[in-house]
Amino acid sequence: MVVLANPPVVDQIPLLRSPGPADYFSAIPVVDLSSPGAARAVVDACERFGFFKVVNHGVATETMDRAEAEAVRFFAQAQADKDRAGPAYPFGYGSKRIGLNGDMGWLEYILLAVDSASVSDACAVPSSAAFRNALNEYIAGVRNVATRVLEAMAEGLGIAPVDALSAMVKEQGSDQVFRVNHYPPCPALQGLGCSATGFGEHTDPQLVSVLRCNGTSGLQIALQDGARQWVSVPSDRDAFFVNVGDSLQVLTNGRFRSVKHRVVTNSLKSRVSFIYFAGPQLAQRIAPLPQLLGEGEESLYKEFTWGDYKKAAYKTRLGDNRLSPFEKFARWPDRAAATEAGL
């Protein structure tokens, strides 16, 4: 078990009701990437939840385990040694503070830039060759998963060419980010019916994000049923979980919805997660794809570039609706209502 050398004061971190057995969501879509029906399954999951689990993804268990073991070793260092790898503005080691706008969480993390399929040379962290090599092997595998998922989306949506979405990530200069999160146990809250917020509720701004964690649960998503019911995602260390991001929501004109999610900490178990964020080039135009607009259907969003949106996102709090300033119209109950109204 990994613990922080100097645990943060609990009262600095927002508290949430501890999830119980009834909160676990058994209906999370599972997509077999090796199946002929993967494209249809991906689109269905993105339309219903903006979230799904991927199995038969092709990344070796040994690759995932090696990266996890190196991450555990890094976070087990003395706090002073870890602090020398920060602060994470924008890349490096961070603890408790998430971004520059006051958000706090019961976690520590490493934030890294990715060039092509490996950690950018501009990132001095991690300095350990073993950790860096393990991460590069993992990133190459998970980036391939992301591109296969984006190609399945294009196929399922009937977009040509099939790499119309994945090319945005594979192009030279694409804005890819990789994050390693460690949520230490919080024994001070054991038996109190509440848990510390690990990472506050938010959506991801990129196209998609691909997550993998150890066997400790904690991830929650908000169901898109109007009531914003929070449900817990059962952990599966052999699978990947995919989130639809804000940019993909715009590209599909709201057909896919970016999923709001958060992390609740465990009182006794440490949680380690890896998240690959697939973003396009800064100059990439973000607007609904013409092939997805029906006859007479208008874009629900003002056009912007990924660089514009990224800059705006960094000025917000985690829970803010980052897309709100880019929406053309007042929020409608659903996409069909807006289309029926001629918007």
From TrEMBL:
<keyword id="KW-0223">Dioxygenase</keyword>
<protein>
    <recommendedName>
        <fullName>gibberellin 2beta-dioxygenase</fullName>
        <ecNumber>1.14.11.13</ecNumber>
    </recommendedName>
</protein>
<dbReference type="InterPro" id="IPR044861">
    <property type="entry name" value="IPNS-like_FE2OG_OXY"/>
</dbReference>
<dbReference type="InterPro" id="IPR050231">
    <property type="entry name" value="Iron_ascorbate_oxido_reductase"/>
</dbReference>
<keyword id="KW-0408">Iron</keyword>
<keyword id="KW-0479">Metal-binding</keyword>
<dbReference type="GO" id="GO:0046872">
    <property type="term" value="F:metal ion binding"/>
</dbReference>
<dbReference type="Pfam" id="PF03171">
    <property type="entry name" value="2OG-FeII_Oxy"/>
</dbReference>
<dbReference type="Pfam" id="PF14226">
    <property type="entry name" value="DIOX_N"/>
</dbReference>
<comment type="similarity">
    <text>Belongs to the iron/ascorbate-dependent oxidoreductase family. GA2OX subfamily.</text>
</comment>
<feature type="domain" description="Fe2OG dioxygenase">
    <location>
        <begin position="173"/>
        <end position="280"/>
    </location>
</feature>
<dbReference type="InterPro" id="IPR005123">
    <property type="entry name" value="Oxoglu/Fe-dep_dioxygenase_dom"/>
</dbReference>
<keyword id="KW-0560">Oxidoreductase</keyword>
<dbReference type="InterPro" id="IPR027443">
    <property type="entry name" value="IPNS-like_sf"/>
</dbReference>
<dbReference type="InterPro" id="IPR026992">
    <property type="entry name" value="DIOX_N"/>
</dbReference>
<dbReference type="GO" id="GO:0045543">
    <property type="term" value="F:gibberellin 2-beta-dioxygenase activity"/>
</dbReference>
